[in-house]
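In response to reviewer comment 3 from the previous cycle, which asked for concrete evidence that the modeling workflow produces usable outputs, we include below a single protein chain processed end to end. The sequence was submitted unchanged, and the resulting structure tokens are shown without manual editing.
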Amino acid sequence: MPPRIGSLTCLKTLGCFAVGRKKSSQLGELRNLNLYGSIKITHLERVKNDMDAKEANLSAKENLHSLSMKWDDDDRYESEEVEVLEALKPHSNLTYLKIKGFRGIRFPDWMNHSVLKNVVSIVIFRCKNCSCLPPFGELPCLKSLELGRGSAEVEYVDSGFPTRRRFPSLRKLIIGYFDNLKGLLKKEGEEQFPVLEEMEIWFCPMLVIPTLSSVKKLEVRGDKSDAIGFSSISNLRALTSLYIRCSFVAASLPEEMFKSLANLKYLGISFFRNLKELPTSLASLNALKRLDITGCHVLESLPEEGVKGLTSLTELFLDDCKMLKCLPEGLQHLTALTNLSVRDCPTLAKRCEKGIGQDWYKIAHIPDVFIRN
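The workflow returned the following structure tokens.
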């Protein structure tokens, strides 16, 4: 960072400011700058106390709409970090906020609906000492929330009162690496997540998904047999896209998992290393148009009854399923199917050879067939 950048009082745009160890490159350099747009402040671990942080005068920068604050892992003043972040209170015109690497034991008081009333997007990452998340559910304009690698003490995304409307504008929610997260809301009510459309959940082994009437897209990743509570996915009845990628020890998925997903159009299942079979409730997916199965190394077959119900299926992709032995008889009756791809499934590839393979009669009606061993 060039020294004494604060002397450039006509400077309007400063994309990144790295806090230095010398006075000429500390937060006081931002005090008299009338900054516009966005700024990323890094090396906040070098800020010794709240007095130094207040020198940045962020609360007066009404034209600053995007603020990213990052603490790194080298020498730092951990005991002062709560006060430092408290002193970095932004102006209420802020629309984007990112906090990464903060090690204080709690988030600042300004992270509420008064200061963050215009915020549309928030990212909180590697804040491992905060046992409770801010009241994000109160923010009226929040559309996107990303939470990653938080404290093992966090059990709920929001612990607010059920009588209040929570997350009224939230459309996208990403949560990752919260070991003991039990649910999204401690107290569920009728007017919570009313417009939420998209969710990504990564490695949250204790999380159970509540009933959410508006969610259309869900991606789940995990690595334990008890992760996510797959049966709770059936609570998302409006789902049109579901992608699950895991390395579970489980040999099967819950039978009830697909029963309520009448609107599902895309289903992707990847890297279930010990998955031997799919549930017959697959037959409930009458609206499904595309099915992708990848890296399920011990999967031996697709369920005969389950496949019969996929009457809207147009695309089927099977990749790296080395134990898959044959295709179900019902495949020949899926008249909407126009695209079949079989890659790295050696036994199945041989059975699907054009004209001579034992399974060729099941797929001869499909216009576009791609087989690669």
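The chain has a mean pLDDT of 90. We consider this sufficient to address the reviewer's concern, and the full set will be provided in the supplementary archive.
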